[in-house]
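Please produce the structure of this protein holding pyridoxal-5'-phosphate.
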Amino acid sequence: MDGNYDVAAIRREFPILERKVNGFPLVYLDSAASAQKPRTVIETQREYLSHFHSNIHRGVHTLATQATEAFEGARETIKAHFNAAENAEIIFTAGATDGINLVAGTWGRANLTASSTVLMTRLEHHSNIVPWQILASEIGFKIEVIEIFPEGTIDLEDYNAKLALAPSLVCFSHVSNTLGTINDAKQLTSLAHDAGAMVMVDGAQAAPHMNVDLQDINCDFYVASGHKMYGPTGIGFLYGKRALLDAMPPWRGGGEMISSVSFDVPTTFNVPPYKFEAGTPHISGAIALGAAIKWMESVGLDNIAAHELALTKYAHEKLLQIEGLRIYGTAEHKAGVVSFLVEGIHPSDLGTLLDQLGIAVRTGHHCTEPLMDWYKIPGTVRASFGAYNTFDDVDALVAALERAIKMLK
Ligand code: PLP
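Below is the modeled complex.
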């Protein structure tokens, strides 16, 4: 127990943490890729599937009403937790990637032209780069990259210089999945708005680790993934300001997103959020995501953030005692992500040996190839923390690394 943070009690809520991997107790240090699930999320999904599964919105029977209430209740939970102005601003998506593709495919296609410029940082995950590149190849707009400093922070001078190009849109991640840098989303948004640009924030790595207030940040779009917030895979949300969503054309066509369909007069579309939710959604996922958010709230995002920060500082201190180890991402404000390399050893060799000792880390470019190219490295080993990690996990990582390095050198 550190302070009032009862990590042992938290760990008991995660059945997967009881298992062994390759004969060793699992040390799960890959929450940035996907967080494990507490019992309440597993149970919520089971309860829905066992007792009130039905399609939503269209039915008059009891199960349909209960499923609809739970689904819309999850939307309300997201709206309240992230402080959106209204439920209509929360669109259920398959995840962060899906949300960004939605913005590119609707707002982007409707508003960007061949003479537009889109800014994005060098820190971006491929999911906040490639949808814009695909659209740029169709429309012909220009993508400009906001540069960073070696510790992984945004170069504000470069940002201001690029804002002078009068971009239509600025895209940035709230927290870098590779370096852990926490960007000042409110400041970056305000600068972009002053320059007349819209703002798309990738919150995939922020939402599980800190309180996020969307009206305070004042961004135009924000996306997050359920599975990184201790919820299921295949579910997430896009936040968009209501006036923008009202003006945007629909994305995927199908049931639920229409107001009326005809062969004789033009088909008309539903209001947000339904306009962007064609077809049967991931109902159990959405309901369980609501449970995951309530679980995070029960622990307290500020408590989770403080615990993960302590783990990160401890990990930095311990890892830097290993000869030849370099940490990538040393921003003053960083989340629980520690990327590193050991001189002369390929990250995937280290990752494989660590797995043999029960330690789950991620190796590779972490879907940030432009960032890896900039550092001139093939990738890193990345240890990332969740609410359930302990100082013992860090010690186990360090001990296993020392063993692995001896074997590989
Ligand atoms: N953005 C960031 C910063 C991420 O770390 C990830 C996933 O690792 C994504 C976007 C994509 O999330 P998803 O695969 O859940 O759509």
